[in-house]
Amino acid sequence: MGDLELLDCGNGRRLERFGDVLVDRPALAATMPAALPPAAWRRAALRWADGRWTRGGDRESWSVCLADLQLECRPAAGGQVGVFAEHAATWGWLDGAARSLQARLARTPEVLSLFAYTGGATLACARAGARVAHVDASRPAVAWARRNAEASGLADRPVRWLVDDARAFVRRERRRGRTYDGVVLDPPTYGHGDAAWRIEADLPPLLDDLAVLLGPRPGFVLLTAHTPGFDGERLAALLREQLGVAATAGELRLTATSGNVLRLGAWARAAAG
Fold first, then answer.
1. 0.85 exceeded by pTM
2. pLDDT 10s per residue in the chain (273 long)?
3. What single string gives the DSSP state of each residue in 141-169?
4. CA separation (Å) from 93 to 31, 98, 157?
5. C-alpha to C-alpha distance for 182 and 112, rounded to whole angstroms
6. DSSP state, residue 76
7. Which of 244, 270, 65, 74 is nearest to 184 (CA)?
């Protein structure tokens, strides 16, 4: 069962356990009826509704363990708590891809982690021996990721913690002639950095720039998204067309202990053999 558990979802909401803290918050994809009775949902210590924490918003931070990483949770803007359990399965893949790449290259791989938020993917790569550039436009998120690195015993790993717009950083790295062996990116549907981000318009040109940074044979690529219309096959097609990799695809999903399934997005990935 571990520290994280989706207890139920339905009626546009999700009920989760982060350590010993129950959280009730919106989930647009939860269109099915909830399986648990209302009394179970009322046990939540934190509840997000109507654009604010209506219960527990003043709670102090607490720690959970996910994929052998110690991660800080706390009530944050937008109903987030800092941990995305559906990504944990991709961290295991990143660990293996980074270790295989290091063995093949016989040197430390250079990895770029974009829209990196609180650092789960970054730490998975760093723990596997990669040198990582962690890029996020939010200064509080980057500080949060650094605390996660310290809590996980990875503060001494070679990570550059960068508060920057992902597109602007990648363009500058391209002009500098920098190269990377692998990249992981989790772009939002909408966002703000140096300019407004719209995944529909801005993801393809970002991938064009990444193609230059990664060269003709990228070591590995992982692209995830939570945007309606960007299913796994669409993400994989973008990687095949713009990075020239043999990408496979899958779904980001969680199965609740109640039996309901919450579909949260998609992934596409590729690794050099």
1. yes
2. 589 999 999 999 999 999 999 999 999 999 999 999 999 999 999 999 999 999 999 999 999 999 999 999 999 999 999 999 999 989 999 999 999 999 999 999 999 999 999 999 999 999 999 999 999 999 999 999 999 999 999 999 999 999 999 999 999 999 999 999 999 999 999 987 667 999 999 999 999 999 999 999 999 999 999 999 999 999 999 999 999 999 999 999 999 999 999 999 999 999 997
3. HHHHHHHHHHHTT-TTS-EEEEES-HHHH
4. 30, 9, 19
5. 6
6. -
7. 270
Walk me through the domains of the chain, giving residue ranges and CATH numbers: 4-79 (2.60.40.1180), 85-271 (3.40.50.150)
**Cβ contacts of 17-21, under 8 Å, gap ≥ 24:** 18/62, 18/64, 18/73, 18/81, 18/83, 19/62, 19/63, 19/64, 19/73, 21/45, 21/46, 21/59, 21/62, 21/73
Tokens of 18: 């982060």
The Cα–Cα gap between 94 and 220 comes to 8
Contact in structure between 237 and 225 (CB atoms under 8 Å): no
